[in-house]
Amino acid sequence: MRSIPWPIRSILAGTAGTAAMSLAYAVERRLRGRHRGQLDYDDSLVPGQIVAGIMHLPHVTAKEDRELGLALRWSYGSAFGLWHGLLRRRVAEPWASVAFGATLMTATLTLFPLLGRTPPPWRWPPDVMATSLGTHVVYVTAVATVDQDSG
Questions:
Q1: pLDDT value for 108
Q2: How far apart are the C-alpha atoms of 97 and 143, rounded to whole Å?
Q3: Are 124 and 110 contacting, i.e. CB atoms less than 8 angstroms apart?
Q4: Cα(34)–Cα(120) distance, rounded to whole angstroms?
Q5: Which of 31, 27, 129, 7 is nearest to 79 (CA)?
């Protein structure tokens, strides 16, 4: 990986993080077999609804909201790896990952209530908050592991 320029490596790290996060959702679904519906707001129609709202798309179906949400997850999740690469070039680990994770959680905990009309984070059910924190830890860990040579 050292021969790959850091911005490309960081985007690939973001893609790996997104794959790991998606896998974490799949594992949690299997472990919580009786649970029906979304595991957290990232796992819901909210991201797609945010995209549809920003793009002023009228009459979006639930299926289209899910597709928009997945497109957002994979594009944003991959591109956001660049932020880790920039941080990693400025500060050593684990501080780059701490700042990276703090940025992600700040965005999640503020943008969903503001743009997705979810409740504020202090009103999220405990299992939703736990899933959100857990899946983001998985994402950050995967990104940092793949992007470790970018500093």
A1: 92
A2: 9
A3: no
A4: 26
A5: 7
To the nearest whole percent, how much of the chain has pLDDT over 90?
65
Stated pTM of the model? 0.91
| Under 8 Å between Cβ of 127 and 64 | no
Q: Which of 68, 40, 31 is nearest to 139 (CA)?
A: 40
Please state whether 117 falls in left (phi above 0), alpha (psi between -120 and 50) or beta: left
Joined together, the tokens standing for residue 69 give: 């949400």
pLDDT in tens, 11-26: 999 999 999 999 999 9
Nearest to 102 by CA among 84, 115, 116: 84
The confidence band for 35, taking pLDDT boundaries of 50, 70 and 90, is confident
Which residues touch 147 (CB under 8 Å, ≥6 apart)? 9, 10, 13, 81, 84, 85, 88
